[in-house]
Amino acid sequence: MSEEHLTPRERLRRQAEDFTKKVGAKEARKIKGKSQKDEGIWFGLGVFGIVGWSVVIPTLIGTAIGIWIDGAWPSRFSWTLMLMIMGVALGCLNAWYWVKKARENIIND
């Protein structure tokens, strides 16, 4: 039955059922999260470290290659700056991937 064919009382009941399901799902996630004691502060610091290093390493590699190119073939463009920005962008994509993967693992477990 579509939404416009419902009486106001039926619409209200359906909204209450939807709300109850949402609250139940959130409560189940909270209970599940509290029962997983192995993912404490060290897990959070580990994820923080993975995100940090996944941005830093491509940035440093891009900067180092840019410095080498600028030293070997001088030009009016700064390869160091361009490759550093590309490294940061690649690192951010990499960090996004790791955070997305960790989030999926938390939700699916």
Helices and strands, with pairings:
Elements: H1 8-35, H2 41-72, H3 79-108
Helix pairs in contact: 2-3
Describe the structure.
- This protein has 109 residues and is mostly helical.
- It folds into 2 domains: 1-35; 37-109.
- The chain is elongated.
- 83% of the residues lie in helices and 0% in strands.
Concise structural overview:
The chain is mostly helical and 109 residues long.
Based on the model shown, name its key terms.
3 helices, mainly alpha, 109 residues
The N- and C-terminal alpha carbons lie at a distance of 35 Å
pLDDT < 50 runs, ≥5 residues: none
Q: Helical stretch count? A: 3
SSE succession? HHH
**Radius of gyration over alpha carbons?**
25 Å
Helix content: over 70%
Count of individual domains: 2
Largest sheet: none
Shape: elongated
Q: Can you give the mean pLDDT?
A: 85
User: How many β strands by DSSP?
Assistant: 0
Strand content: under 5%
